[in-house]
């Protein structure tokens, strides 16, 4: 198959290796070393996409990360789908399959194009806000329509077969960008002995040297490049990372590098030695010094029709010719504001194609390259610019005219030049994106007509990235910057001999962004500023007329620099146009903030191995295996896996949760149940001042708690709101063990440390987490004493081992602490043994417990049983706005303790002490079958016109087998005074439930059962 | 992600090991009952949010579990110094109002721990 635009020689491609690929279903061929973009251009593919908003045909504009149009969907297989791939950055491989992301039914015949043509004036900037706002109910319809026409690619519908790694790295000097400046910087740093990482987003290291016309030490740039890369790769202190994008520059020289290891080989990672290779690595680098050698992006000129396929950046033309051996057309017109762009015309002519004219906006350009062009017979038209490109699916002509830049007007007759390609250059912008990620605002430099990066501590910019453009200076600047960075890291500067490069005399560039047209901007054919987001010069002018004066507002109103583009190509032009319209200078208008990521990063790389079972650590108790073997369903509580309920097979059918919970509840109330409570937080507290500390941190009193006794405690923040609760037991006069909620264990330990370390360091007390050291088995129910008696040497007599006592002894032959505390309201023993003994004890309990009907129960039954007793769960029945008094737990508040404990003072603040606070109550639904929804809002009068005042909400709600009724806990304004009143709960489906406010204690209100 | 020098471990560690705990040097009134509601409210809820030098309380949560203070620049996010509980900062908004760079060397010297 022919590649009409492929040169017979030249470039860095391997013509002996032909690769087949498809684009929009059509088969093409390219060569090893091509990008998808260079291969498409070689095959003469003009239209690669339809534009986002106006659906105009679009072609390839650039050769690198700044490409706005050739954003394609990659993947032949479903699992291999990758959206948002820039064809200019995708290496060609055999079998590659790509499609345009926009265009319906296809890019050649696009129905949506009619909208762009006919309806252009109906899609002004801010058209989302203006056109689609009303009626709001139609938004979903609009959005579907916009999505369909906008494309934007799609994610795969099948699981990703690839694997991704995260690597954590440290280095002395991280050099980002391996062009001439980055290479000499890396060389200088490496020779001094510093540990260096050099990364570059392209397939090959070299940057601008890969298509340079200049000679280094009388040899081609490739020769010098090969020598330097050979030295760097031979050094043990250097890590070279090609195909690696520095996508985010975070705090304190923390940089994330996205290395693509197989995307140049196939759409999913190929196997190596039978194993799937890692598709990409995310390097998390902490660098001593960072050197930004990110080079420049060329700015296109903004003229009418500048989006028609065949309009390219001048530098991209050179790159395609010199690096890929592809000339993207036959007849070239170059429009420029500077000398450097003349290379495109010289390269074009050397490739054997016609240069129709160079149109230079300057009156008297006189640099060396200008002379060369003239001496080769190329027509150079000065003081002029291309004001409009003609053509629809490909450029057919360039309209050129004299322009008066001061008056922003066309100043002479228009001449039409027939051509198929227009290359433009409005100068060069340092790539400041990474520096902007740190929050540093760039500064405008009139000398280079561009923004320079502002730099935080520990970072420097070199070469093009800081506005140094001439190759000899760039090489020297890189070496100097690399050397300084190494010295800053404590190394001694080493010498780097720089290659001899003849300086090219270049004239001063002129400031040209938008080219004037014969018609005013608002009536001229569209002049595009941001091709990816279809933002025009007229759109920006309109935005400023409508009062959007801040560049950040202009950006949001017009969508300039949005999305994956991040303003690489158009931002400076857009700011310049806004500045012109507002009568300000560019630095006065300022720049928008570039944000990570520099180019899109696939989610796989971000996730790494943290998916599936490695997503989050899972914590298991020592009894976990038993629960699994006995069919438990599990519930996640923080990172813990807790048995939720144990469905049994009854008459060949597995119980539902409702059935299982009812059975488990009955077992506890009537016989004996057992709960694995090991996940409860346990903090060992020791020291002479332990008791004093408890008195300050808990709301209630601790000074009289005797050895062998336990006490329930409430903990508040200093704002008086309940933050945790649990039972603390006195092991010895200076030794306590505190239990916390399962989820609160780590935070409460930190809370205790906070007060001890910052406010009361004079207290002699220490805290140790012992959650994992002890397993806790709760046996509860009327038969629990009989069961435990068979296994322990502890005297369980009700008068010697009272409720809220604990005893030390042996259970099933191993040392144990047994606590007589209850979270069910039944006679309960919490058996604590060292975790390694837990399974033995648990099994022994079951051996002896069968005759008593010992039944394992899970968290769901635990919740029902505790709620029947009105026992709160902090974080469910409280939410950080609930005081002990709101809970009706004044019995747990030591108002007369001498020390003003944490939370006490706040209880008398006006808001905390006011009437009508939400207070904890019980709710009894009028219809016993109703189980109210947790979170349901409570109103006093359902007939009240909307908005109905809401007086509270349901915090816990269950069906109680004991009561044979639904029941709930709730917080209701002034609820403690409303016992017996009826409230209403309107539901989303229109039903209104009726409930009576009752005491939150539904079972055994006198608390007799736990004392038996 | 910050890199934080723990003044107790005397090492630079990743931010993941630490928890921020808000503004530093907020002392709990010694006699809370003597505070007016407004004074107590100020202590509970009101914090400075300066553009520039800020003193913060942090804890080396999964390291030594010690609380300590950080002096941080809220614009550049640069950590100017870290110091132990009970100590006072050597770098304050007043002391850096002139030349921040001049102070950097002092802060760096203080933080010469294990190098990355």
UniProtKB/TrEMBL annotation, chain A:
Record keywords, A-Z: Aminotransferase, Oxidoreductase, Transferase
Gene3D superfamilies, per database record: 2Fe-2S iron-sulphur cluster binding domain, sarcosine oxidase, alpha subunit, N-terminal domain, FAD/NAD(P)-binding domain, Probable tRNA modification gtpase trme, domain 1
GO biological process, one term: tetrahydrofolate metabolic process
Pfam family, one: Fer2_4
Domain Aminomethyltransferase C-terminal span(s) in chain numbering: 918-1004
Membrane in keyword set: no
InterPro entries (UniProt xref): 2Fe-2S-bd_N (IPR042204), FAD/NAD-bd_sf (IPR036188), FAD/NAD-binding_dom (IPR023753), GcvT/YgfZ/DmdA (IPR028896), GcvT/YgfZ_C (IPR029043), GcvT_C (IPR013977), GCVT_N (IPR006222), Sarcosine_oxidase_asu (IPR006277)
Annotated GCVT N-terminal domain residues: 623-897
Domain SoxA A3: residue ranges: 525-606
Any one GO MF annotation of this record: transaminase activity
Domain FAD/NAD(P)-binding: residue ranges: 172-448
Family membership noted in the UniProt record: Belongs to the GcvT family.
Identification of the protein by name: Sarcosine oxidase subunit alpha
From TrEMBL, chain B:
InterPro entries in alphabetical order: SoxD (IPR006279), SoxD_sf (IPR038561)
GO biological process: tetrahydrofolate metabolic process
Pfam families reported in the protein's UniProt record: SoxD
Disordered: annotated segments: 94-116
GO molecular function: sarcosine oxidase activity
NCBIfam families found in the cross-reference section: soxD
Name this polypeptide is given: Sarcosine oxidase subunit delta
Organism in which the protein naturally occurs: Halomonas heilongjiangensis
